[in-house]
Design a protein that fits this description.
By secondary structure, the protein is of the alpha/beta class. It has a domain at 2-100 and 157-234: Rossmann fold, CATH 3.40.50.10490. Helix content is 62%, strand content 12%. It has helices at 2-10, 42-61, 73-86, 103-122, 124-127, 131-148, 170-179, 207-293; strands at 15-18, 30-34, 37-40, 66-69, 89-91, 160-164, 183-187, 198-201. The strands form 2 sheets. It has a 5-stranded parallel β-sheet, sandwiched between helices. Helix 7 (170-179) links the parallel strand 6 (160-164) and strand 7. Helix 4 crosses helix 6. The chain is globular.
Length: 294
């Protein structure tokens, strides 16, 4: 905890915007003013960051993915490096309208990218098409790859979304809220905290502050992935034990059924013996009466 606070302060997470450029809704997260610049309360930053870490760990442990969005220049390289290593999804270029609300069309464009890559790898692009068509196809491939490479492996909607600078990524946040996807947002003093389900007040313009926050959140995602694997192994072990128990239970039930069938068969056998003895006695009586009559 102490090292986290030290890293945040050294990264300048507490520096906000000028006092003339602020959102009054951010007042609860502002500690004071200095040189006409708002100072963000580091306690609120740490509280929001810890809450976001706990939430993301839970989401990933449940088998869901996290989408990181940061199209500003300061955040592009950081998201591509750390989020890519964690195996999660990210958007660092322009947010395409309908990326979430029209996800089927986005998947169609990614299928088109796979087709273009297959044509290019087979060498048919330069032999089977004219130079103009080849240029058009290569330009189309580069455009799709530039805009959608970070969400190429995202086959379903994410379980949560992390946003750097809510004011800049307003369209992405609106789509997430429309679909009910929780949002974790790094918000500066000029942003609206109502757009964030879990706000992390802090400087969203400095590369170092963005890096510290993203590193912490990615570490929480990795913890969730570890928990997911542990839970999966536990389910497998429990399933095997349950199958063995069911097999043993079936054996015991069959034995008891066998005993019950034996118990049920014994009264029937005794009743058949009684019937046979009664029939033999009646036949002897009838023969005795016939002899006496003669």
């Amino acid at each position: 905890m102490a090292s986290l606070v030290k890293d945040l302060v050294e990264a300048g997470i507490h520096f906000g915007h000028r006092c003339t450029n602020w959102n009054p809704k951010m007042l609860p997260y502002i500690h004071g003013k200095k040189n006409k610049i708002h100072i963000i309360d580091v306690k609120a930053t740490v509280k929001g960051l810890l809450l976001a870490r706990k939430f993301l760990t839970k989401v990933v442990a449940e088998g869901k993915d996290v989408l990181f969005v940061g199209t500003k220049r300061q955040a592009r390289g950081i998201l591509e490096k750390y989020v890519g290593e964690a195996g999660q999804h990210y958007v660092i270029e322009r947010w395409l309208g309908g990326t979430l609300t029209n996800f089927r069309t986005i998947r169609d464009r990614l299928k088109r990218l796979e087709e273009l890559e297959a044509i290019d790898s087979a060498g048919d692009m330069s032999t089977s098409y004219s130079k103009k068509m080849e240029s058009t196809l290569r330009r189309e491939k580069a455009k799709i790859l530039r805009n959608l490479s970070g969400i190429r492996n995202m086959t379903k909607l994410p379980g949560a979304m992390v946003v750097i600078d809510v004011k800049r990524e307003a369209n992405a946040v609106r789509e997430a809220r429309k679909l009910g996807i929780p949002t974790v947002c790094l918000i500066d003093t000029d942003s609206d905290p109502d757009f964030a389900d879990i706000p992390i007040p802090g400087n969203d313009d400095a590369m170092r502050s963005i890096e510290v926050v993203v590193q912490s959140l990615v570490a929480a995602v990795n913890e969730g992935k570890t928990s997911r694997q542990t839970m999966g192994e536990g389910k497998d072990d429990g399933g095997n034990a349950g199958n063995a128990g069911n097999a043993g239970g079936r054996g015991r039930r069959s034995t008891r059924a066998k005993f019950r069938s034996d118990e049920k068969s014994s009264p029937s056998a005794s009743s058949s013996d009684d019937v046979e003895s009664s029939s033999s006695s009646s036949s002897s009586e009838s023969s005795a009466s016939a002899s006496s009559a003669g």
